[in-house]
Amino acid sequence: MKVIVTGGAGFIGSHIQDKLIDLGHEVAVLDNLRSGKKENLNPKSKFFETDILDFFGVKAAFTDFSPQVVFHLAAQNEVPYSMEHPKEDQETNIVGMMNLLEAGKECGVKKVVYSNTGGALYGEVQDSDLPISEDLPISRPTSFYGVSKGAAERYLMLYGNLFNIDWVSLRYANVYGERQAGNKEAGIVAIFTSKMLSGETPTINGDGKHTRDYVYVGDVVDANIRAMDYKQSDYFNISTGREISNNEVFFAIEAELKSGMKPNYGPERPGDPRRNCLSNEKAKKLLGWEPKVEFAEGVKRTIKFYRK
Question: Strands of 166-172's sheet, edge to edge?
């Protein structure tokens, strides 16, 4: 099968690219290399250096490659950046999705698998809503990033219904693992690991009791492959269903590195919910997916990657 991965030179996208090639698919990557890296490109992939905001560039790539399936990961994916640059966030995440869907419609794409956010999508919720199921309305995000990613999902649904394009939206918890950039505002495991390996003490935003649901990148790749093979259109949380605090993340990394560091604490970040944890029961039931890598093991693998 011919498959395009937008954002395929990035953290999650490059792992999906590699898995697709291992499974025998013909893969192309569309990436502007703003955050993606050329070294993440598989030699067997065809590469289009194109921004998803360039409709004619996207359409040219789709026309040239004729994909049947598109994995859409190219995005603005940082909450703090979205709070400072809401217009750019909206353009990349919503207009970018529109460009992809328009090009896909015109070029005969049969299916889109969308990498969405679950952490920012649902926003601040009541403790009684945890772990959050897909039944909870996505009407209470606390960041522009959550708004734009949710709106893009709605465009995907409507295009699918109107133009007979199958789709699956995967609402990720906090993904971590090898190849995640440690110099960004998103990805606390990568940020803490890279800083601690360089001898710098990380700063925890707030009191360290904010919680997130951390899911390993290899498990996320498995969910994407299952989504590609799924015969219906739907949306799923991809998560572990377990809350882990920022303090726990710090001390899990410290225990592996044995650095002796103590965390610094700083102000809370605007737009960050206090608690977040997603139910994965729907994905277990319908996709036959569940996470396999425990957090401690995932941290070990991540540290090993950064030590290379």
Answer: 46-49, 26-31, 2-6, 69-72, 111-117, 166-172, 234-238
